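Please, structure for the following, as tokens.
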Amino acid sequence: MPLLAGRALEVALEEDLPLVLVDPVMFDAALGNVLDNAVRYAPAPAPIRVTARAVEWSPEGARRGAEAASGIELVVGDGGPGVPPEELPLLFERFHRAPSEGEPARHGLGVGMTIVRGFVEAMGGTVDLGSSSLGGLEVRMILLAAGSPDTAPPATVAAPVTEPADG
């Protein structure tokens, strides 16, 4: 499938966004899956919008139980048919696929959003689903800013330094 397959991509990034501490492989997989779903389920020429803004948030269930943190809210919305509100929480369940009445057969296993949630939460963030102002699905990911209280690097163990033997 061509990258955007005839869809307009709107990008709006707030200036001076903080750096986020993410695993690049997990982040790439999570964002790639969300964008792939937007292309797959929003018929051309429906637009896809990506926005990012700085936020202060309370990461319920985030790693180490931080009370408040800085982060970035990354939102991907599309102009597709959307998902009924009662189906939104089910999209995070493995193998669940929203009904596709009147639409061509959908491909995939129904594990994409499960993977997205797992990766985002493993990076200390959250992910939520809703209705996009474009008419389709909106995926909201919040990622912790580097330097937030909850992003302290893990303790490291250094091997003892030994002097080389004179030979």
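Strands lie at 9-13, 48-57, 69-78, 126-131, 137-144. The chain is about 15% helix and 25% strand.
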